[in-house]
Amino acid sequence: MTNLLILGGTYQARECAETLLAQGFAVTSSLAGRVTAPRLPAGEVRIGGFGGPGGMTQWLTEHRIAAVVDATHPFAERIGSAAVTACNSAGIPLLRLQRPGWQPGPDDRWHWAESLDAAARVTARLADRAFVTTGRQGLGAFAALTRTWLLIRCVDPPEAPLPPHHRVILSRGPYEVADERALLLRHNIDTLITKDSGGSLTSGKLTAARELGLPVVIVSRPQRPETPSVTSTAEAVQWVIDHVSGES
Ligand code: NAP
Description:
The protein is of the alpha/beta class. The chain has helices spanning 11-22, 52-62, 77-90, 116-126, 177-186, 204-212, 233-243, and strands at 3-7, 26-31, 44-47, 65-70, 94-97, 110-113, 129-132, 149-154, 166-170, 191-195, 216-219, 229-230.
């Protein structure tokens, strides 16, 4: 059997694990352990950090991993860099599986921000009532917003510091456009705040904002090190077959 490691925590990572298992590979998925009750992929799962690139190199060697697919979220910067270093050190191929970013339509009013801090500054200027969907981590960037009321949606309860005027709703996607529209209307939201996560499972909020003519503050993706990259599970599976052929 050929051993593969998928760096996960995304829908695409779960889809990739399932498909590669069906192809006869021995797949281990790795999760950071951030979410209390994560959706588990098929196959073996390990949870928790590796202890940096050195720890990951050791893990790859000990588990005789033939190739790694980094299917982590586009905003998970550190693990992406660690994977490049570790795979180089272990001498095994690495592929990044990453869905394309979102694109504005012709009438959309999207304000691109380079960081959560920058997004918070634009929000302070733009919004009376904002819907914040950037995730639990990094919410501290919005803590200094004293004028704007924030509806914060995340999977697990966020930690302090939080802005003075806010409400938290805990939920996990996917989300339908009609539900997103109803939520925006129910809370009189005038601005949507999101990361450029990409994919269709959470894009309903963008469609709903478009329909309601609301501006969007969107955090652009961080730079990640250059590495072979694909956008679909089918391409990832083909890459694995090409790079570890004859070993499965
Ligand atoms: P990060 O900043 O890149 O990683 C921080 C540290 O967490 C890493 O150095 C590593 O610890 C550990 N880690 C991260 N992903 C891991 C994985 N898949 N398996 C094992 N260890 C992992 O990552 P993050 O932004 O905190 O994201 C953590 C996880 O949540 C990722 O798996 C990502 O796919 C998922 N996620 C992130 C976002 C987001 O917006 N950032 C959104 C949705 C899902 P060591 O240094 O100890 O190895």
